[in-house]
Structure formats: structure tokens, C-alpha cells
Write a structure and sequence with these properties.
Elements: E1 4-6, E2 12-15, E3 17-19, E4 25-26, E5 29-30, E6 32-34, H1 38-50, H2 77-87, E7 91-99, E8 105-113
Antiparallel strand pairs: 1-2, 3-6, 4-5, 7-8
Length: 120
Amino acid sequence: MSVTVLEPDGEALGPAPVLALPLRLDGDRLATLQQGSAAELGQSVRLLMATRPGERLESPAYGTRDYTFANVTDVDAEEIRAAVREHEPRVTADVTVTPTPTGRVDIAVAVRSTTDEEDV
């Protein structure tokens, strides 16, 4: 879905800005991001990764498993890519899972815009 802001004369101003999350101030206003920008697409994927399935009542399948205490055998990179494909079709994701010396894992998700090939 895309929202376009119109001037009083009906001239389109372009895509409407979206709130920056977490909410923060930009001067005396809430910070916003341009819809479809690298910052907004990155924010969208970070929110997806931070949300657990079932947390959003209107979209119970939205989110990914909690990998906070996962070891390398618990992390399924394809599962993460599939969640990004399903819930954020404006990007493609490259997921890298790297074991650390402490037995934990680092998960890196690099996304690329599917509309203009911009790295996010």
C-alpha cells in the first residue's frame, strides 16, 4: 500500500512519510522516514526481526522466532529469508549466520530493495 499526499490544488507531493521507530523527536516534531527509502526499508526488516509470531493480533504470522539464546544449529537462515519475503516484499534478504567463540551466533541480515536495487 502506498499513500500519496496531495496539495490543496490536487498536485501530488509524493509518498507520505512514515513514523521513525522507535518514536523519537526531530526538533519539536516526531521523526519520520520517507516511504520506500533505505532507512524505512531497514526499519521495516528490523521490526520484523524483533517481532515474534503471535504478537500482532491482526497479523499473527508476522515476525520471526526469538533467536536471543540460540546456538548455531537452532538458526534457520532460510526461515528468516522466507519471513522477509512474505512480510516485506520490497526487499530481498541475504542472511548470514556466524558462530561465535562463546557458542552463541551472530545473525546478519543484509537487504536489497527490489524496486531500485539500493542496498539497505
